[in-house]
Amino acid sequence: MTAYLADGKCRREVAGLPVVVISTGNGVVVIENRCPHQQAQLFHEGVVEEGMITCPLHGRTFRLHDGACMNGAGRLTILESNIVDGELMVKPVPGPEYGLFR
Ligand code: FES
């Protein structure tokens, strides 16, 4: 995947997997664009503040550095990424690493 970084976040696909690329003060985080709560593909519309993203559907908040949920069960899928020669390289995961949490 090639992406040119901008402030904030953008929606992309990596090997068919919908992801959100988030530019933070500490670099870039790439997450699967699917909430582990009820699988909403709305993270691209989520609010990013202080190293966390809040799902717009039911308000669960997840830490971007490790994916942990701060107000419920579940964990974000964070994809391994690296910037090489100004391009964002992302390693896709073979499948979901989490189940359905309610
Ligand atoms: S689907 Fe994201 S908080 Fe419920």
Question: How does the SSE layout of this entry go?
Answer:
Layout: E1 9-14, E2 17-24, E3 27-32, E4 47-49, E5 52-54, E6 61-63, E7 78-84, E8 87-91
FE2/S2 (inorganic) cluster (FES) binds at residues 35, 37-38, 40, 55, 57-58, 60.
Care to describe what's here?
0% of the residues lie in helices and 40% in strands. It has 102 residues and is an all-beta fold. The chain has a single domain, classed as Rieske [2Fe-2S] iron-sulphur domain (Rieske Iron-sulfur Protein, 3-layer Sandwich). A hairpin with a 6-residue loop joins strand 5 (52-54) and strand 6. The protein is globular and about 40 Å long.
Main-sheet strand order equals 1-2-3-7-8
CATH architecture: 3-layer Sandwich
Note the total helix count. Answer: 0
**What would CATH call the class?**
Mainly Beta
The main β sheet shows up as: 5 strands, antiparallel
Indicate how many domains the architecture comprises: 1
* Count of individual beta strands: 8
N-to-C CA distance: 32 Å
* Topology-level CATH name: Rieske Iron-sulfur Protein
